[in-house]
Amino acid sequence: MIRTPLRPLARVIDARKHGQNPDQIEAAERAKRNQAVHQKLRKRAEGRLTLLGLAFFMGFAAIGGKMAMLAVSEPMEPKLAYSGSKIYSQRADITDRNGAVLATNLVTTSLYAQPQRMINPVRAAEKLAKVFPDINPEKLLKDFTGTRKFIWVRKKISPEQQQLVHDIGEPGLLFGPREMRLYPNGSLAAHILGGTGFGKEDVRAAELVGVAGVEKYFDARMRDPAQVDKPLQLSIDLTAQATMRRVVAGGMKIMDAKGAAAVLMDVHTGEVISMVSLPDFDPNERPRPLLKGDPSDSPLFNRAAQGVYELGSTFKLFAAAASLEKGLVNENAMIDIRGPIKWGKFKIRDFHNYGKQLSVMDVIVKSSNIGTARMAQAAGTQTQKELLGGLGLLQPTALELVEATHIKPLVPKNWSELSTMTISYGHGIAATPLHLASAYATLANGGLKVQPTLLKVDAQTAYGARILKDDTSKTLMRMLRNVVTRGTASFGEVKGYSVGGKTGSADKPKPNGGYYDDKVIATFASVFPTDDPKYVLVLTLDEPSIQAAGEKRRTAGWTAVPVTAELITRLAPVLNMRPEVAGSGKVQYTQVKN
């Protein structure tokens, strides 16, 4: 840059020549230069002020815009997620058909230790053992004095426990926020819900993953951020579930049973309104699976959806359905029941001597093995297979439980004519109570296939293919009604609700083959009301027995039937069903409340 000197030589010489003071030239040049500098500084300051003003304007505009967005947006619950990791801990709620909460998330605290920061690990171990009595103080002290730099003490603790740990005053004991899964109804619906566990986790967040039940079946949907605000609505009714569990537990105790299972299903939609398996568990404190022994001894075992049992005479209705559908008989046709039927070294007998012949109606009412076997023999093996397959009794159910999706009924490898006869009265084939409920629902609703579901169905019906004619279905319902009014299920009568059903008492198989002489699986599959079927209720008792009429009774008519009658008595009002009006001949009911 070329700078003008303060005392230009030419101007100085000229000034001296004319007698002027050269200092004035320097002063003028200095003033001119200072003015230029001041002008430059002023422009720079003005530019900076302009930029600062723009910055303030943009900042206030952003804040105002955000406030405007918040003012017009819907209020939302905060989501617990740690921005420093990829762990997303939110999980959708689960509700019953009426919106009652079955599972939700609760913000809680985890407790961990960093031994290198501890002042007195011995005292810390002793104090923690008092706060958490199940902790081994010796093992904890070994961990605190070892080489580990991080130790989980508890992955979830209560506020009271947090305060007690805080009072210990140990800087090496630290807390971290996380969410836990809360089941506010405890063991109610435990086998349906299943439970959750922790997946990916760190000290500031933990991933909740399903480990069983619908929690695992719908795990991806429950963890989807786009659906986490939409509860998963199940088909079960919480009040009906509580009622069923209470009555089944009482019946199981009275009948001295080892276990019990019950399924209540809507015959038109396949919705499971209630499902109970006892013994059960609390999903808030899910127990560990059994590592040895019989899996059914574990409270985690779902007897309704996993328990594969010979369900005895409840299968006789299917033999009658096949014969009626094929046009071989009607309900008044007479069947030769003289016996026993001999097949090689095997003999098929009746429990009582019913004479020489019975009508098809009375074969079911009196539960004749011989009469049922002859009907199945006449209908043929292929007809039996087609009907049982159409009713879903030869493949796993489609119920939304991980435990149910792989449970397939047990059928003979060689389905001989003898197998056809024994299967007709429920021996040589084993299925779950859920399978039986689904099949009876199809028989009851007019013969249209329904799939069992744990999700609420908005439609009034959810029919599939036609399996039986409507006339066949109505005849079968009359048979079930007669079983209660004058047959083996006389203890099942509930005044005003037109209950029908079929008993089944099957000897319990031994683990190594053969059958016990004094242990049975007692089942009662009921439909109500039979004049306009709405619900199927299946109850199964494992090894029941009761002293009655001077004898030890184990059959379903003495055990499962009276418990079912009590169930229907308690459940019908919960389901908004009113008893039959005197003289009307019809039960009045409304839909399960939405």
Structural class: alpha+beta
Number of helices: 17
What is the total domain count? Answer: 2
Helix percentage range = 25-40%
Kindly provide the name of the CATH class of the largest domain: Alpha Beta
Please give the number of β-strands.
Answer: 20
- CATH architecture classification name of the largest domain: 3-Layer(aba) Sandwich
Uncertain regions: pLDDT < 50 for 5+ in a row? 77-85, 590-594
Sheet-strand content, in percent, reads 15-25%
Mean pLDDT: 89
CATH superfamily of the largest domain, by name, is DD-peptidase/beta-lactamase superfamily
Question: Main traits of this protein?
Answer:
2 domains; five-stranded mixed β-sheet; 20 strands; 20% strand; 594 residues; alpha+beta; Penicillin-binding protein 2a (Domain 2); five-stranded antiparallel β-sheet; Beta-lactamase; disordered C terminus
Structural account:
The protein is α+β, with helices and mostly antiparallel strands and 594 residues long. Helices cover 35% and strands 20% of the residues. It has helices spanning 9-17, 22-72, 121-131, 137-144, 159-168, 190-193, 213-217, 219-223, 238-254, 316-326, 360-365, 369-379, 381-390, 417-424, 433-444, 470-486, 560-574; strands spanning 94-95, 101-113, 151-157, 173-182, 195-202, 205-212, 232-233, 259-266, 272-278, 334-336, 341-343, 346-348, 357-359, 500-509, 515-528, 535-542, 546-548, 551-553, 577-578, 588-589. The strands form 7 sheets. Strands 1, 2, 3, 4 and 7 form a 5-stranded mixed beta sheet that branches. It has a 5-stranded antiparallel beta sheet with strand order 9-8-16-15-14, sandwiched between helices.
